[in-house]
Write a structure and sequence with these properties.
Layout (H helix, E strand, L loop, with lengths): L3 H24 L5 H16 L2 H4 L3 H20 L4 H4 L7 H4 L1 H14 L3 H21 L2 H5 L2 E2 L4 E2 H22 L4 H21 L5 H16 L1
Antiparallel strand pairs: 1-2
Helix pairs in contact: 1-2, 1-4, 2-8, 4-7, 7-8, 7-12, 8-10, 8-12, 10-11, 11-12
Length: 221
C-alpha cells in the first residue's frame, strides 16, 4: 500500500493543528499576534524539514503546498486567523510561505541534492524569525532603521548570524564540505540572503531569500 496519501493527510492535520494551537495561544493565553506568528512560522518550517525523508515525489508536496496556500489565502482575505495573519504592517508573508517550500523541494529533486531544500527552508524558518526578533529588541527599536522602521540593522545582524550557523550546519556537518569551501559558500549565501531580507518588504522576503539561496547554491556547488 502506498503510504504517501497517508503522509499527506498527516501533514495537513499537523498544519491545521498548529493553526488551532496558535489561535488558542493568541486568544486564551493572551499571546501577542507577533509571538503566535513566530510560533507557527518556526514550528511549521521545522516540520517541513521532514519532507525529503518522507515524500518520494514533488507532486505530493505540491498538493500539500497548494492546499496550505489556499487555506492561508482564504483566511487572510476573510480576516480570519489573526494569530497567523495579524501584523502591525501590511504583509503577505504568511500566505506566501508554502510557495518557496514547494519550489525548494522541486529544485532538490531536480538536482538530486536535498541541500537545495534544507538550507533555504532553514533560513525561512529560523533566520527570518531571528530578524523579526532582532527588530523588536531595544537595539532594534532604538538603533538604525530602514524603510520607515520596517527593517532594522539589529534584525539584519540577527539574520546574518543565524544564517551563518545554518550554512555551517548543512554544508559542513551535513554534507562534509571542506572548511574553505564551507566558509566561502556560507559567507556568500548568508550575506546575499541578508541583503534580500533587508530590501524586500511586505513579506515578499519569503520568496526572495530562498530564491537567492537557490541561485547561489546552483552557482557555487
Amino acid at each position: 500500500m502506498d503510504k504517501q496519501p497517508l503522509w499527506l493527510l498527516l501533514f495537513l492535520s499537523l498544519l491545521l493543528g498548529l493553526m488551532v494551537m496558535s489561535e488558542v495561544l493568541h486568544k486564551h493565553f493572551r499571546w501577542p499576534a507577533e509571538r503566535s506568528r513566530k510560533f507557527i512560522h518556526v514550528s511549521g518550517g521545522l516540520l517541513c524539514l521532514l519532507f525529503p525523508a518522507i515524500f518520494t515525489s514533488h507532486w505530493w508536496v505540491l498538493a500539500l503546498a497548494f492546499i496550505a496556500f489556499l487555506l492561508l489565502l482564504v483566511t487572510y482575505v476573510k480576516k480570519m486567523l489573526p494569530s497567523v495573519h495579524e501584523t502591525k504592517r501590511y504583509s503577505l508573508g504568511s500566505v506566501l510561505f508554502p510557495v518557496p517550500v514547494y519550489v525548494c523541494f522541486l529544485m532538490a529533486e531536480m538536482n538530486h541534492n536535498d541541500l537545495y531544500f534544507y538550507l533555504p527552508v532553514s533560513l525561512l524558518a529560523i533566520s527570518d524569525t531571528a530578524a523579526e526578533i532582532g527588530g523588536h529588541t531595544q537595539w532594534g527599536q532604538q538603533g538604525k532603521q530602514f524603510f520607515k522602521g520596517q527593517k532594522t540593522l539589529a534584525g539584519s545582524v540577527y539574520f546574518f548570524i543565524t544564517a551563518l550557523l545554518a550554512n555551517a550546519g548543512w554544508l559542513f556537518i551535513g554534507y562534509h564540505l571542506p572548511i574553505d569551501n564551507m566558509l566561502k559558500i556560507g559567507l556568500l549565501i548568508s550575506l546575499f540572503a541578508t541583503i534580500a531580507e533587508l530590501v524586500t518588504l511586505h513579506g515578499w522576503d519569503n520568496l526572495t531569500v530562498p530564491a537567492v539561496t537557490l541561485l547561489l547554491l546552483s552557482l557555487l556547488l
